[in-house]
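User: Could you write out the 3D structure of this protein bound to zinc ion? I've included everything you need below.
Assistant: Certainly. Input first, then the structure.
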Amino acid sequence: MHTKHCRLCGAELTRSFVDLGSTPLANSYLTAEQVARGEESSYRLHARVCDACLLVQVDEAIPADAIFSSDYAYFSSISSTWVAHARRYAEAMIARFGLGPQSLVMEAASNDGYLLQHFLARGVQVLGIEPAANVAAAAIRIGIPTEVTFFNTDSARTIAARHGRADLIAANNVLAHVPDLPGFVAGFAAILEPEGVATFEFPHLLNLIRQVQFDTIYHEHYSYLSLLVVERVLAGAGLRAFDVEPLPTHGGSLRVFCCRADAAHPTEPRLPQMRALETEAGLDLPETYDSMAPKVAAIVGVFRDFVAARKSSGRRLAAYGAAAKGNTFLNACGVTASDLLCVADRSPAKQGRMLPGSHLPVVAPDVLTAIRPDDVVILPWNIADEIAEELRPLRAAGCRLWVAVPELRQL
Ligand SMILES: [Zn+2]
């Protein structure tokens, strides 16, 4: 096996974080014909940590076109929770930074305009930057000017020359998906006004470790980020963080506020507090990361025993939630369609297909109700309570509901 090098600093990667073996891409849902023809590629899914810069990363870079060429298109506006989150963000930023008709707000990976629409409605100028043409078209239709391109240093310079610089630029849940982290972040230095602000939201590595959220590891997530590493990347691009806000999204995220290194924004007390929290947890020490793999192995072992026990006692087991994290989980556990009846999901685009790897059939929620399994495992633990509420009739009929991460428990 050839040597792997850190995506951020180039050092040799020698320390394992979690090795999940060889699995298909977590968002590659299959048709029955594809399963019958055996059309499925698997790639190594092994997260490592760099001893030199402490970036946690998956070491098998899948070509971006293999990931994005699938017919999977995600429109952010479909999620009402996410749109509400975006509206609160817009209101807070307008108030905090005094944004008005003279200001220009941009978003890198602006999707269908789910975020910028709230600035537009308040009379602030906006510009989206989105690589997926069909998704960008949806934004343009609702009046949001959008450049169809990947955000990087080159495109940032071109956009600044064409449209002017940004007073505020957001990048939500995109840092983890970027193969070239320094090149991406350098674009923000190129596009910001001298006193402009960039905000980055990303799932916080501290929560991933503490709550053993290993199922958030998948090929499309290149990086798993701490404040420590993000500040290192920012410094390399001539930027500095001045504030950080913990958010409940995606099992616990951070929103980092940053500006040019020489800008006047004062450092808020929350920033050193969060740094201290990470240091207390040992995120600055490579050995800390060794604790993850045994915890993952324990969760996988418990779940495999649980499945075997259901099978031997003749109880019928199903799952709910055909999202990426469920696929990582089921494939890490080696669970297949001979172990679980099906997985229910509300997304019509997924119903009738099969999960990558495990090949569980995806059915509509009312099919699950009709099947009346004895046990249902809710895979998206972050919205387990919401789903349990939805499955109340099933539970009333005697079905037991479970979550398996960070530990198996009955709801
Ligand atoms: Zn490194």
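The chain has 15 helices and 17 strands.
User: Perfect, thank you.
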